[in-house]
Design a protein that fits this description.
about 110 residues; mainly beta; five-stranded antiparallel β-sheet; 9 strands
Length: about 110
């Protein structure tokens, strides 16, 4: 269990997907480029079997913006997107209202 101060340390931001593509060498990964208001970042996400990359472009999502970058075999992942579900029911991206803007803090 965490307290409110610990939760407030997680920087959740609205992001707009500006590009998405398959990671050829990976079974589950998509390489997603997002606009978080002040900059663009690359996120590698294990949603390959659930989303067609071309359908993601322009979609608003929620990302963890202050996660330490993670060096992976395919590049550096600079955040994490939020999703729900599992292999049995599917995976569903968490999306804000259409009027949200990239960079807005989720709180």
């Amino acid at each position: 269990i965490i307290n409110i101060d610990q939760f407030m340390n997680v920087d959740l931001r609205v992001a707009k997907i500006i590009d998405a593509k398959d990671v050829e060498e990976a079974d589950k990964l998509l390489e997603i480029r997002v606009d978080i208001g002040t900059e663009e970042r690359t996120i590698f996400a294990g949603i390959k079997g659930y989303y067609d990359p071309s359908d993601l472009i322009g979609k608003l999502i929620v990302v963890v913006a202050n996660l330490k970058p993670r060096k992976m075999r395919f590049g550096v992942s600079e955040g994490m997107l939020l999703a729900s579900g599992d292999d049995d029911s599917g995976v569903f991206l968490i999306s804000p209202d259409d009027k949200a803007k990239p960079g807005q803090r989720v709180n």
